[in-house]
Amino acid sequence: MSNAIDQFSIKLQYWFPAHFISRLVGAVCRCRIAAIKNALIRSFVWLYNIDTAEAGQPVPAGYPDFNAFFTRELKPGSRPVDDSPTGVVSPADGTVTQIGHMAGQQLIQAKHLTYTLPQLFGGDEVWSQQLSSGAYATIYLAPNNYHRVHAPLDAELREMVYVPGRLLSVNARTAEVIPGLFVGNERLVCHFDGPLGLFSIVMVGAMNVGSISTAWAGQVTPQTPRETSRRSYPGSEPPVQLSKGEYLGEFCMGSTVIMISGPDQLAWHEELRPGSSVRMGQRIGKLTHDSAT
């Protein structure tokens, strides 16, 4: 019975006007009527057992709306960033759903389900070829997690790609049963150059994700028209450079981050596996000897 209910609830997502619902949720979350926004924040804190002691401002008075609370900064020192020269840190708080090395350009979404780099990158064969056979880690951000994304390494932005798509839930259950979930959902692909060479951070949208923002471009999604767009860096702009642990972007509501490195550059810590919890700044891997010299 439970399996039938799961299947029905997943299929139901296809029938919902997800983009409209996400815009509606976004509007409610931006409400600045004190009584409403305070009730939303207090209810969320209670429902998800949020550690408000980490919040950078008083809760709820320090936040003008629910969005500001959801994407809140933390108090200094709440997420120490590993400072070892070869250390690779988690870009976000969350749960590792997949981690390992690609078979060519193929990544694992869940048991028996795979997808490819060209699909994830919006059809880009050039970047896909450069990162082929590299390492990857998929981190799911639940509603109770800290929702800012940070640089896992010192990095310089090379390209940002918006890829339109659906807004289906990306929790573990959905990922196990919907083929091509991550490559079908709306997403923002950020390609970087770092001490290990080229790597990418993909921020995957999901149901009720009202927007995705970056440190350098502000709010990027939702975008109109909803068509793939690319922006190369540096262009007329100064270079976008991030230090390890520096703020990269954020989700308004929960979603998934996928980190992908080039081949023979990165080794994940052996104890990390699907189901492992990670925190931003935590050392999750190291550069190989060749890449660190």
How would you describe what is shown here?
The structure is a single chain. This protein has 293 residues and is of the alpha+beta class. It has 2 domains: 2-70, no CATH class; 87-292. Helices cover 24% and strands 31% of the residues. It contains 9 helices and 18 strands. The protein has helices at 2-15, 18-29, 34-48, 66-70, 117-120, 125-131, 172-177, 181-184, 289-292; strands spanning 87-89, 94-101, 106-110, 113-116, 135-141, 148-150, 155-163, 187-194, 197-204, 211-214, 218-221, 229-232, 241-242, 247-252, 255-261, 266-268, 277-278, 283-287. The strands form 4 sheets. Strands 2, 5, 7, 8, 9, 12, 13, 15 and 17 form a 9-stranded antiparallel beta sheet that branches. A hairpin with a 2-residue loop joins strand 3 and strand 4 (113-116). The radius of gyration is 19 Å and the shape is globular. The chain starts with a helix and ends with a helix. The mean pLDDT is 88.
